[in-house]
């Protein structure tokens, strides 16, 4: 599976280079400057804090203690692992297992992470569908049918969840508590808006002068395409951007340049997670040494 993701991403890159040349990729790297990186890092601070807050709310509902500072640090570490390792979920698994060891219940902690990610994806889909129904996009004409299909799928999930007692209990306690679900929805909305704003920032950095009302639907579409398993989003993101930008007359090359600039911004924004990872390893190494010394 890991090699399949690597081969898939490489194949998309190969096709894009064959059709468009290496120029759009190099331009995406060259156009990123200190100002755009600073803005992207600040946006990432907001989205990461919101993600950590959402995780804390879900964990509290399931009866798991999770301080917000620890959640923020763990989320940064998770994001860094997600963008550097194949699949895009390794960081989340690591986050759940690490938290589970801290609270002596790995299973419950993993369920909290899964529910937190699920809540975020549901809000992302709802916002994306709403925007694509209202604003012009390459899939605007198909959106009524897509919406109908999503409603049927949601109804099926509700039936399954109601029939499966553990899932029903976790969703009720973790996501649908009266005092929790508005905050979870707000946090998830801010995360989606932050990611979309970063994509628009990447487009502006790449020299795309299209109005925000045109770029936001494209950003949300690309963010959905990035769900396809890959290595840190690379490959599907560039391919999807090339398609949606070409479909609205902005040019496939501009889409690739924007996607590469976005990828660079996202990677740099997750670097605090690398620092958290190094500190975690250092603490694990130091504590056994200290214990041995006392022995």
Please give a structural write-up.
The protein is mostly helical and 295 residues long. It has one domain. Helices cover 81% and strands 0% of the residues. Helix 4 packs across helix 13 and helix 6 packs antiparallel against helix 10. The chain is globular.
Number of strands: 0
Could you estimate the helical fraction of the residues in percent?
over 70%
| Termini separation | 45 Å
Order of helices and strands: HHHHHHHHHHHHH
Number of helices: 13
What is the domain total for the residues? Answer: 1
Radius of gyration: 20 Å
- What would the principal axes of the Cα set say about the shape? globular
Quick structural gist:
This protein has 295 residues and is mostly helical. The chain has 13 helices and no strands. It is 81% helix and 0% strand.
Keywords:
single chain, 295 residues, mainly alpha, disordered C terminus
């Amino acid at each position: 599976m890991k090699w399949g993701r690597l081969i898939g991403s490489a194949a998309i890159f190969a096709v894009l280079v064959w059709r468009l040349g290496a120029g759009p990729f190099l331009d995406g790297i060259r156009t990123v400057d200190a100002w755009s990186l600073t803005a992207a890092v600040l946006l990432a601070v907001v989205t990461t804090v919101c993600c950590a807050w959402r995780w804390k709310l879900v964990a509290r509902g399931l009866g798991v203690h999770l301080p917000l500072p620890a959640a923020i640090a763990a989320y940064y570490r998770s994001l860094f692992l997600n963008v550097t390792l194949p699949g895009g979920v390794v960081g989340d698994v690591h986050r759940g297992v690490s938290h589970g060891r801290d609270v002596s219940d790995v299973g419950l902690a993993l369920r909290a992470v899964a529910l937190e990610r699920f809540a975020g994806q549901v809000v992302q889909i709802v916002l994306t569908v709403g925007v694509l129904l209202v604003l012009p996009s390459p899939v605007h004409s198909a959106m009524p049918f897509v919406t109908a299909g999503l409603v049927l799928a949601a109804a099926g999930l509700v039936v399954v969840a109601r029939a499966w007692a553990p899932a029903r209990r976790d969703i009720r306690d973790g996501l649908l508590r009266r005092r929790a679900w508005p905050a979870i929805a707000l946090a998830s909305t801010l995360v989606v808006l932050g990611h979309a704003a970063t994509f628009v920032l990447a487009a502006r950095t790449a020299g795309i002068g299209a109005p925000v009302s045109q770029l936001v639907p494209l950003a949300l579409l690309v963010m959905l395409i990035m769900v396809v398993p890959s290595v840190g989003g690379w490959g599907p993101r560039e391919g999807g951007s090339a398609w949606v930008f070409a479909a609205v007359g902005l040019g496939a090359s501009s889409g690739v340049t924007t996607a590469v600039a976005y990828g660079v911004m996202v990677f740099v924004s997750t670097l605090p997670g690398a620092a958290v990872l190094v500190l975690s390893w250092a603490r694990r190494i130091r504590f056994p040494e200290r214990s041995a010394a006392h022995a």
